[in-house]
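Hello, quick one for you while I still have it in my head. A protein chain has come my way and I'm curious about its shape. I'm sending you its amino acid sequence along with the backbone structure tokens. I'd be grateful if you could look everything over and explain what you see. Here's the protein in full, and shout if anything looks odd to you:
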Amino acid sequence: MILVTQGTAERDVEKLIVPVLEAYKNTEYLVVATTGGSRTQELRERYPQENIVVEDFINFNEIMPIADVYVTNGGYGGVMLGIHHQLPMVLAGIHEGKSEITARAGYFKLGINLKTEKPTVARIKQAVDKVLSDKQYKTNVSRLSEEFARYDTYRLCEEHIMGLLDGKNTMVRRLSGEFSLS
């Protein structure tokens, strides 16, 4: 299964969703596209193939565990969910800080960074096929996901915030003369 999204803010489905649908229509792959509410019905009519599903929104926590590859514009939240669900990626995003996210994901071989906002059908197909056939991407994203799982992020955040608050209280006491520096 190939999961594709451009996030909720990007409205031009021709950038990423359409090239993926073109690359994999009438294939053995199930392609699930989530549009964020942009031109959903139009895409359903344009791509009536049995192997294509187009929805406004899909619960990623339900679909990512059963997907094989995630094609995304490289938004922070989506990439983090992909890592959490050990899902190798193909990333095509440059703006809104996405170039930093896609560069890191590509560098660490969590997926392939296409380094563009508008990949061609051929480039999408080449990248998705490589991610599906080369197990290093799945291995690397799984390893990072397992590392993330070792941390209790809520506890770490709480400790950090309390440390900052304690430091602030210490500074207030120091400024008020409660502490002596000798």
Notes: The helical segments are 17-24, 40-46, 60-63, 76-84, 98-107, 121-133, 136-149, 153-175.
